[in-house]
Write a structure and sequence with these properties.
By secondary structure, the protein is an alpha+beta fold. It has one domain: Cathepsin B, Chain A (Alpha-Beta Complex), CATH 3.90.70. Helix content is about 30%, strand content about 20%. Strands 1, 2, 3, 4, 5, 6, 7, 8 and 9 form a nine-stranded mixed beta sheet that branches. Helix 4 crosses helix 6.
């Protein structure tokens, strides 16, 4: 088990940067905007509790650290982690060379949330969400940009597009915009507390509740998804299992690809958003 932490993250960045996508042979995309820099339209990143449709988590709802070892051991015995529940039912998202990590991570949480709600797996289009935000350009953003679009408009199924990385909607099925209403975000929680300690506690709380969530890592310039599993390393240290957006890259767990373990020193996210419910579309 390879765990990313302060001792190896620089080598991890080198190795991750050398990864090439099998589809194009190009480096796999990232695309997270720095939290302290405005977008091209002048907007700044929202603060904790400022994203519409994302209710801020309360400190009283966070699971205390002293209970984590027992809860982790119980979920291990019961095989009740999120990664156990989805198995191979929800494939890893794959942004290829697009700078759309900020959308593909939320696409992943939408698809996993649908599975938890006992809806069938239907690939949804990240580009149908990110394209309108970025005027159909290959450009970066924040997961909150995608979250607001999932909540207000939704995203269409991938089969109505010209492919998962197509930025030319004129070549898509004419019904793609109408289909977006079938794949909308209904409720989200915001765990983007103002301190790293509380954000890590929010990530662990969501993971213990088997709830997928988006994660932002400024040190990696990248956004991925979390909520899959936790492990007690002893001596008060824990690691969380997260999932990237690069297809086959990463560890294989329960038959699913794209996973990576991160300790708190590098695994604590700069912002955390977790779906509570999504449109229950089945066809």
């Amino acid at each position: 088990m390879y765990i990313v932490n302060n001792s190896n993250y620089q080598q991890f960045l080198v190795e991750a940067g050398q990864h090439r996508h099998p589809h194009t042979g190009e480096p796999c995309g990232r695309g997270l905007f720095p939290a302290d820099q405005p977008r091209e339209d002048g907007r700044m990143k929202a603060g904790f509790g400022e994203v519409p449709n994302a209710a801020p988590m309360a400190e009283m709802d966070l699971i205390p650290m002293e209970t984590w070892p027992d809860l982790i051991a119980k979920k291990d015995r019961d095989n009740s982690w999120l990664v156990d529940k989805i198995g191979t039912d929800v494939p890893c998202t794959d942004q290829d060379g697009l700078s759309y990590c900020w959308v593909f991570c939320s696409k992943q949480t939408i698809e996993v949330a649908r599975r938890i709600q006992n809806n069938p797996y239907i690939p949804v289009s990240a580009v149908s969400v990110g394209g309108p935000i970025n005027s159909w350009r290959n450009a970066g953003g924040w997961p909150e940009d995608a979250i607001k679009r999932w909540a207000s408009v939704g995203g269409c199924r991938e089969s109505l597009t010209a492919g998962p990385w197509s930025l030319r909607p004129t070549t898509w099925d004419k019904n793609w915009e109408a289909d977006c209403q079938n794949f909308k975000l209904l409720e989200w929680d915001d765990g983007s507390f103002n301190t790293a300690a509380l954000r890590w506690q929010a990530q662990m709380t969501l993971t213990l509740h088997s709830r997928p969530h988006t994660l932002e890592f400024t040190w990696w310039s990248h956004a991925i998804a979390g909520g899959y599993k936790a492990k007690n390393l002893g001596n008060g240290k824990f690691t969380l299992l997260m999932r990237n957006n690069w297809g086959q890259w990463g560890e294989t767990v329960n038959g699913g690809t794209g996973y990576v373990w991160m300790e708190s020193d590098k695994g604590v996210s700069d912002a955390v958003f977790a779906p509570r419910s999504v449109t229950p579309y089945e066809q």
